[in-house]
Amino acid sequence: MQKFGRIMLMRDSYKEYLIPIIITLVILTLSFFLHLKWCGSSMRQSEEIWQERLDYHLNYYPFSIRYFTTYSALFVKNLFALPPRESFFIIQFLLAIIMGPLFYRYLRLLSFDKIWANIGLFLLYSAYPILGAHIEPVYTWDDFWVYIFLILTFTAIIKGRLLPASLFLTLGAFAREQTFLFWPVFVLASFWYCRNYPRWKSIIYIAAPLIIYLPFYYIKWQPFPGRTEFIIYNFETPLRGSDSIFSFLISFGVIWLTSAIGMGFARQKDRWVKSKLLIWGAILSVPTTAALTFFLTRARETRIFFPPFIFLIPLTIIFLQSVYEYFRKTMPPLKIKILFISLPVMLTIGIILAPLIFPAFEFRNCHRFHQQAFGFHLGLAMTIGIFYLMKIFDDRKKNGIITDS
Questions:
Q1: pLDDT of residue 383
Q2: Where are the alpha helices (DSSP H) in 330-366?
Q3: What is d(CA 163, CA 205) in angstroms, rounded to the nearest whole number?
Q4: In a 3-state reduction of DSSP, which class is residue 234?
Q5: Model-level pTM?
Q6: CA-CA distance, 235 to 272, in Å (whole number)?
Q7: Please, what is the angle between helix 84-109 and helix 114-126, to 10°?
Q8: Residues with Cβ within 8 Å of residue 171, at least 6 apart in sequence
Q9: Whole-angstrom distance between the N-terminal and C-terminal Cα of the chain?
Q10: pLDDT range class, residue 337, cuts 50, 70, 90
Q11: Could you tell me which residues come within 8 angstroms of residue 239 by beta carbon, excluding any fewer than 6 positions away?
Q12: Angle of CA points 87, 166, 144, to nearest 5°
């Protein structure tokens, strides 16, 4: 009977992943057609260009020390006798599919129920760096490996398993050295969630990513001319500066706002124990990621801003939960109707304003799509502003600061 009970429990847990898998496949299908048909992307470039791109990643530093995507694409190419373009996108979409259930599981471990975890999964896949991962100039290459290893790292940490977490963070660094920006969060989280390890063992596991990767990086390091001049490059002309700012804003869109507000809700006593990883993760990873992107890379490559999603999307879920509770328990029905009426109005205004704010791009494919995407997020942000004006008014009225007379 116990064995039968375990089998039934496993079946129920597998069933739980049906909706996350559907969400993953549906949005990735939309992404595929966005790249191939509706917008145009590197997916439509010739095999000659893709062979040159693959050779470039094989031979030129620092791309030549990031092995996962390049060599997995070569493996598929040689195994199935496929062209480099098809080999690359098989790997990319396979990784994107794997990422969905892993992120859903991570959200469930953060104590979000099934509905909110699925909402978080939708937020992940609808984010521009995932939905438009290969639209120029996003240039996603090793990044899905980084996303997966970050998810696995902090999933293992939450479960109190320090050795696997250390291994996954190390593998993430081999995928792309940017992963090391999350090492301080890894260290902090290890003290919160992995207290059952002897101190000497904890120190070894915490230091292992540095001990393993840094000697490799030192041996492989080569001068990279112009690396420290990217901050000048990113703002060298008004149009390029505008493109850099657009890239930063669209990387998360309205999630920049909702996650910031979510941090305030997450600090409440009943949420603090479960949310301190998210708060400190955002505090430690967002500024360093943004600084790295603006100072040491081409900021127009939007994906480089995105790795803190692992903290910002859960903080957005906390924000949405708080809004839902306010709607359900406190907000007057008339104001709810006003807010829902204002949503399409603000979205329309945002889409109208977007081409005025960003009338042109120096180097970005599918201009109209990008303007509309920015306008959509702008409209959502303005709707949130209206919501908070109503909430502040209600709170002041409740506290007697404003009266009906």
A1: 94
A2: 333-357
A3: 6
A4: helix
A5: 0.93
A6: 39
A7: 150
A8: 145, 149
A9: 69
A10: confident
A11: 360, 361, 362
A12: 25
